[in-house]
Inverse folding.
């Protein structure tokens, strides 16, 4: 029997109020499993930032989370416009978010850098017009 | 101070008490940008914000905060209060603007916390 728990979520692109439901669900599961609070918070922040990005930039997308005794791995995929310049997107404060998104409290250009800060490993694959996949790992053991 | 003691200091309306109304809080942060709260806040227990949407509650949840105070007289709707209640987070609203609300809490002993820019 595998010790890994796999969770899958669909993030809607047209309902900003629901963004964060997946992160909330994962956070509660990790707390229930007795994962160290610091690791729980790092997963929650990284995943929530990514989930908001899916809703804002990706037009919605998919999240797959795998929880093992050693680590939490997260894959966030969208079929949105893609990121033309990943290096630029990783710079704090750089953002393409419109004012409508800033009025919702996001779009300050902190999302990707903050995900990287909270994850132990992070990679981004993106193709313009095809979509973006972000992979993150947080070690919990 | 406790979460409960914030209410008279800000002459606030309490919408829900959450699960830690009598817990001690030492630090708070004030921001309308949830991006900044997620990126810079470390261990603050109280969020003061003028951002009135469900993501303020989600952000507080991710950051393990115990209380949200909506400033400038903003009143949360039922869905926001319900989400906060489900997550055990207290919700209040004060007529004071951000600067004055933060100042009143600071004057009464609540600090900004260390290693934070917000």
């Amino acid at each position: 029997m595998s010790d890994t728990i796999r969770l899958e979520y669909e993030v809607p692109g047209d309902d900003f109020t629901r963004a964060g439901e997946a992160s909330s669900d994962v956070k509660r599961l990790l707390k229930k499993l007795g994962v160290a609070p610091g690791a729980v918070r790092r997963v929650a922040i990284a995943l929530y930032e990514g989930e908001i990005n899916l809703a804002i930039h990706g037009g919605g997308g998919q999240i797959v989370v795998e929880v093992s005794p050693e680590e939490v791995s997260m894959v966030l995929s969208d079929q949105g416009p893609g990121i033309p310049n990943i290096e630029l997107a990783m710079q704090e404060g750089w953002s393409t978010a419109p004012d409508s998104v800033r009025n919702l409290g996001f779009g300050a250009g902190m999302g990707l850098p903050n995900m990287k800060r909270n994850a132990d490993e992070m990679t981004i694959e993106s193709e313009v017009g095809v979509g973006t996949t972000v992979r993150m790992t947080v070690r919990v053991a | 101070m406790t979460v409960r003691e914030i209410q008279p200091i800000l002459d606030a309306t309490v919408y829900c008490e959450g699960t830690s109304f009598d817990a001690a809080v030492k630090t708070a942060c004030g921001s309308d940008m949830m991006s900044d709260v997620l990126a810079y806040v470390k261990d603050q227990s109280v969020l003061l914000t003028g951002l009135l949407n469900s993501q303020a509650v989600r952000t507080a949840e991710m950051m393990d905060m115990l209380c949200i105070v909506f400033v400038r007289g903003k009143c949360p709707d039922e869905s926001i209060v319900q989400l906060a209640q489900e997550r055990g987070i207290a919700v209040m609203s004060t007529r004071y603007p951000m600067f004055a609300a933060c100042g009143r809490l600071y004057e009464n002993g609540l600090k900004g916390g260390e290693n934070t820019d917000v």
